[in-house]
């Protein structure tokens, strides 16, 4: 427990430094008991993301083997984690996990925030795994013991490339799971436990990406991007995930029954549109009306000499520890689910040692006061330099798009028209799919009755 305040600070900082991290959705209650349930795509970095999203101290349930891990045991113990014994890890007796549930229920009774990954394991599957019933039993048990309704808040962790430094990541917070009608049935009522687990699963699916297979991701994401671009809907991350899941469900459903020729033709059109756009370095929003004009019409901001100097200084100061962290992570041979965890923990050690070494060198060369100034200045320069380099990279990417449009201005109107037609086709396709397995036709097909 002694590490909780430190872990909250480190977890929030690490999440926002390692990833380009954003949080969206309703705020987690900042006082009183709360049960946070999240998907588990990314090993021990997931708790850091949940802490950053929650904005408060969080205690987690963790597999028992982590407590004896010489590299990570001190971390999970100091953070107040509660051990859970899994049959795949150790031989579990009939009462081995009763202590874990008792500890979690008591913590909720004291007003703590408990974090649970109900999938049970970290994984890289394209959708949620079957949920364990532990979270439901804790909530029902806490009500039975303390008579207090504990909010159950789903948190969806959405990661673009989870092992990659400065890749996009988001925590999407959902509305609390409704379960007041089940509260007085108790944790021994199996039907109540299963019903509440199903509701938790439904809440998590609303804030996570759920695909039938990873190969569908490029097509599904491109379809969602076209829809968002043509309907001017970018800002709400939860709505974006809802569209992605509807598209994925629709695609899976079409595989399970005879797919119409029109549906197959539309899929081909979308893939061809995507390939052509990517060859030009463009995205759907770059063609869409006002949004396209805004994104490609931003004024160019020249980089002033001071910003260029800070960017170069940050790169030079931390290039060596960056490379060393990558090398040591590779040497550790982590599995895909823990690669980012190892990279982060190794990086914390390497970067801290590097900054302290530079401060000690400055103190030896120029005196202790200079060393004391170098200690906070070096990390600040590194972070500012990182931000400047990313802004410059984003600006260059934007201007490459603009140059591509200007160089091929004769084909852009045709691409824009085709994209609008695809959006109309998708809308008609969705409406037909909702009505059932009737024949799906394109509104641009001569044989269609659509206008």
Give the helices and strands, then pairings:
Layout: H1 4-18, E1 20-24, E2 34-38, H2 45-54, E3 59-63, H3 73-78, E4 82-84, H4 98-109, E5 113-116, H5 134-146, E6 152-159, E7 168-173, H6 190-206, H7 217-230, H8 237-256, H9 261-279, H10 289-296, H11 305-332, H12 339-366, H13 368-407, H14 412-435
Parallel strand pairs: 1-7, 2-5, 2-6, 3-4, 3-5
Antiparallel strand pairs: 6-7
Helix pairs in contact: 1-2, 4-5, 5-6, 7-8, 7-14, 9-14, 11-12, 11-13, 12-13
Would you summarize the structure shown here?
The protein has 451 residues and is an alpha/beta fold. Helix content is 56%, strand content 8%. The protein folds into three domains: 4-206, 3-Layer(aba) Sandwich (Glycerol-3-phosphate (1)-acyltransferase); 214-280 and 410-435, no CATH class; 305-407, no CATH class.
Give a short account of the largest sheet.
Answer: 7 strands, mixed
Q: Which class best fits the helix and strand makeup?
A: alpha/beta
The N- and C-terminal alpha carbons lie at a distance of 64 Å
Q: What would the principal axes of the Cα set say about the shape?
A: flat
Oligomer: single chain
What is the residue-averaged pLDDT? 83
Rg estimate, integer Å: 25 Å
Counting H and I runs of at least 4 residues, what is the number of helices? Answer: 14
Fourth-level CATH superfamily of the largest domain:
Glycerol-3-phosphate (1)-acyltransferase
When the domains are counted, the total is 3
Here the CATH topology of the largest domain equals Glycerol-3-phosphate (1)-acyltransferase
CATH domain class name of the largest domain: Alpha Beta
Low-pLDDT sequence parts: 438-451
Give the strand tally. 7
- The helical percent reads 55-70%
Summarize the helix and strand pattern as letters.
HEEHEHEHEHEEHHHHHHHHH
């Amino acid at each position: 427990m002694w590490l909780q305040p430190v872990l909250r600070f480190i977890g929030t900082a690490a999440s926002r430094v390692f990833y380009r991290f954003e949080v969206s959705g309703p705020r987690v209650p900042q006082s009183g008991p709360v049960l946070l349930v999240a998907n588990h795509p990314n090993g021990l970095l997931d708790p850091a993301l949940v802490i950053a999203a929650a904005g408060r101290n969080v205690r987690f349930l963790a597999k028992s083997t982590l407590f004896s891990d010489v590299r990570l045991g001190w971390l999970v113990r100091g953070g107040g984690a509660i051990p859970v014994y899994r049959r795949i890890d150790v031989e579990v007796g009939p009462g081995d996990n009763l202590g874990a549930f008792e500890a979690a229920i008591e913590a909720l009774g004291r007003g703590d925030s408990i974090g649970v990954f109900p999938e049970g394991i970290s994984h890289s599957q394209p959708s949620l795994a079957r949920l364990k019933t532990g979270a439901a039993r804790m909530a029902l048990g806490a009500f039975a013991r303390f008579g207090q309704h504990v909010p159950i808040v789903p948190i969806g962790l959405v990661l673009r490339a989870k092992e990659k430094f400065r890749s996009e990541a988001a925590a999407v917070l959902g509305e609390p799971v409704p379960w007041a009608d089940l509260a007085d049935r108790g944790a021994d009522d199996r039907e109540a436990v299963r019903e509440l687990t199903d509701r938790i699963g439904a809440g998590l699916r609303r804030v996570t990406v759920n695909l039938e297979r990873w190969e569908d991701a490029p097509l599904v994401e491109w379809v969602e991007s076209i829809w968002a671009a043509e309907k001017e809907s970018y800002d709400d991350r939860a709505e974006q995930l809802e569209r992605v899941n509807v598209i994925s469900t629709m695609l899976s459903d079409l595989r399970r029954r005879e797919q119409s020729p029109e549906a197959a033709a539309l899929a081909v059109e979308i893939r061809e549109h995507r390939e052509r756009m990517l060859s030009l370095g463009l995205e759907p929003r770059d063609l869409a009306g006002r949004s396209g004009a805004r994104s490609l019409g931003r004024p160019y901001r020249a980089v002033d000499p001071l910003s260029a100097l800070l960017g170069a200084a940050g790169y030079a100061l931390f290039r060596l520890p960056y490379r060393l962290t990558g090398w040591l992570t590779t040497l550790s041979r982590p599995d895909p689910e823990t690669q980012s965890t190892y990279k982060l923990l190794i990086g914390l050690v390497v970067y801290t040692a590097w900054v302290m070494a530079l401060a000690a060198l400055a103190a030896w060369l120029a005196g202790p006061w200079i060393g004391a100034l170098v200690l906070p200045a070096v990390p600040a320069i590194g972070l500012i330099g990182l931000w400047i380099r990313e802004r410059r990279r984003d600006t260059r990417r934007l201007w490459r798009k603009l140059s591509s449009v200007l160089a091929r201005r004769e084909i852009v109107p045709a691409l824009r028209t085709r994209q609008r037609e695809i959006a109309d086709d998708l809308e008609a396709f969705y409406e037909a799919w909702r009505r059932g397995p009737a024949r799906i036709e394109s509104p641009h097909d001569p044989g269609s009755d659509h206008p």
